[in-house]
Design brief:
Helices cover about 50% and strands about 20% of the residues. The protein has about 240 residues and is of the alpha+beta class. The protein has one domain. Helix 2 crosses helix 3, helix 3 packs antiparallel against helix 8 and helix 7 runs antiparallel to helix 8. The longest helix has about 35 residues. The radius of gyration is 18 Å and the shape is globular.
Length: about 240
């Protein structure tokens, strides 16, 4: 072993994890502020779209599911044709170079998709293949690094920050059969591949519909025993 190279790699990984934990804390605090600005009807309406409302009541099989509902609400529930993220940026914009602004911009540019875990990066995260958009993404995610399994399909949202890429907090594992039977046709419907291999850009309404159906499939595929990859507190 070349000790100088080993120590450089170890320090680089330590620095990456420190930055990752910092961004997680920024995300927790920002999400709490945004969630408080959601209308009361947002959660039940979004829960209905995700298929977890029965007889008018939000029914959660797993504590992590509320984090999924909140994430969908923040990015897709519209009042006056604006999401809570868009209203926040208009009404109380952070300083241009602040961490909060950087995170808001990453959230605004993000999309949900199905990803296959291509490989696990020990002690830091994983490499994901975006099965909807065709990208290959290296994410920092301690939950995936510790318990993820290469080859597994997961559903969630990836935030692309200047220093690293991370999930919005929760990734939902999906059985391969459910992916093949339900998600592959869904991707083909919303994002058919053109002759040159590109996929269309979805409108806000199309993106909301695609995400709702994708999350609905993922939430129901695992059933009550679903175990999520969660790097944030539920509701945070």
């Amino acid at each position: 072993m070349k000790w100088p190279n080993f120590f450089r790699r170890t320090r680089a990984n330590s620095d990456l994890i420190d930055r990752y934990k910092h961004w997680r804390q920024v995300a927790r605090e920002l999400n709490l502020r945004l969630i408080k600005q959601l209308p009361k009807v947002a959660v039940p309406e979004c829960g209905k779209k995700l298929g977890i409302v029965k007889a008018g009541t939000l029914v959660l099989s797993n504590d992590d599911e509320i984090a999924v509902v909140y994430d969908y609400c923040l990015h897709h529930y519209r009042r006056g044709n604006k999401t809570v993220i868009e209203r926040y940026l208009e009404q109380t914009p952070p300083e241009p170079d602040s961490d909060e602004m950087t995170l808001l911009e990453a959230m605004s540019a993000s999309h949900a998709s199905a990803f296959r875990i291509a490989e696990i990066t020990p002690r830091s995260g994983a490499v994901l293949e975006d099965l909807g958009y065709g990208d290959r993404i290296e994410v920092t995610d301690l939950a995936l690094a510790e318990t993820g399994i290469a080859g597994t399909v997961v559903v969630g949202r990836i935030l692309k920050l200047p220093e690293l890429q991370m999930s919005s907090g929760t990734l939902i594992p999906m059985p391969e059969a459910a992916f093949e039977q339900s998600v592959v046709p869904l991707i083909g419907k919303f994002m058919p591949t053109s002759g040159d291999g590109t996929r269309p850009t979805l409108s806000a309404a199309q993106n909301a519909a695609f995400t709702a159906l994708l999350l609905r499939i993922a939430l129901h595929a695992g059933g009550e025993d679903n175990v999520f990859y969660t790097d944030m507190e539920p509701g945070q």
